[in-house]
């Protein structure tokens, strides 16, 4: 292939290949158990797959309406109302997206302009910062510290300036498994009064919450709802990360802006999958048991790790478990994660990559959305280290 002869300035000069692609490739190259990237190694419900097949066979294979199928938006409106007591207008305030990633990108693009500041909490999911920067915005980082990874709201208050346009929340939180409490939401509601600050609430793990904790959705707080984009993912809820299907909720004024961007990013999303999910979502049983399903996996994994030299950092939600390896080595997280993959055959994610300054805390992230036999094999290896 001939090389491009021109010159160009990269729009994202500091961004390389995503750590998930890097670690998954390393896992494949070394035939390692891949607990790095967050995806289940078990199957999607056969019923849901059959629904998609049937809708395809019945000819539902052309463009869906731009905001998504009305029947899917209606089921979502009912679900959100039943769970969180928020009444979203399915016509004007709900949009189906190609996964949560597109919803996040579209929400950020629709309101962030040159030099707007966006507060994010680190360690942070990796798509936020590139989306902010591509729109000329400035990420403002607030660090969450191990082992609790709680938000210090006094610090957040101190970082607010006249340029602050948005705060990005994520609960249950990837990568730490921490969850926001009612007191967090109340403090946020209090100090945002009288400001124009918009919230982007990433709630893709809304159902993956453990130990009888309640998910504190932004949708439970009317004063926050009126200034928020809330983002969800069917990929997480239905073990179908490869389908890239999600949705965004927002008050009409914000949703209008969102749709202006959405129509030129993807225009619309996969039609037969929308039909199938609309049917499947009507049965609450298809998502209400998820918390206990994943709690069992978390508990299986941490019980199998008893006796290992890794220290368990409590995970209250998501399908991630952080392990502190300070009693094994003082290697850097990236170095240790690479060595674990190459020498021991188990791939994880160094949490340092979720901090812009690569903050080192001797902590790795392991995904437990796996069959028990996969978790047992992984734990057996980890116990020998
Ligand atoms: C916190 C968080 N937000 C968003 C996403 C993206 O979700 P989707 O696969 O639906 O785009 C992920 C996926 O890992 C995530 O962990």
Q: How would you summarize the topology of this molecule?
A:
Blueprint: H1 19-29, E1 33-34, H2 46-57, H3 70-84, E2 94-97, H4 99-111, E3 117-122, H5 128-134, E4 138-143, H6 153-159, E5 164-170, H7 182-192, E6 198-202, H8 222-225, E7 228-233, H9 234-237, E8 246-249, H10 252-265, H11 271-280, H12 285-288, H13 290-304, E9 311-313, E10 320-324, H14 333-344, E11 346-347, E12 349-350, E13 363-367, H15 372-383
Helix pairs in contact: 2-11, 3-11, 4-5, 4-10, 13-15
Key phrases:
385 residues; alpha/beta; 7-stranded mixed sheet; 4-stranded antiparallel sheet; 39% helix; binds pyridoxal-5'-phosphate
Can you walk me through this structure?
- The protein is of the alpha/beta class.
- It has helices spanning 19-29, 46-57, 70-84, 99-111, 128-134, 153-159, 182-192, 222-225, 234-237, 252-265, 271-280, 285-288, 290-304, 333-344, 372-383; strands spanning 33-34, 94-97, 117-122, 138-143, 164-170, 198-202, 228-233, 246-249, 311-313, 320-324, 346-347, 349-350, 363-367.
- The strands form three sheets. Strands 2-8-7-6-5-3-4 form a seven-stranded mixed sheet, with helices on both faces.
- Strand 5, helix 7 and strand 6 form a beta-alpha-beta unit.
- The longest helix is centred in the first third of the chain and has 15 residues, at 70-84.
- It binds pyridoxal-5'-phosphate.
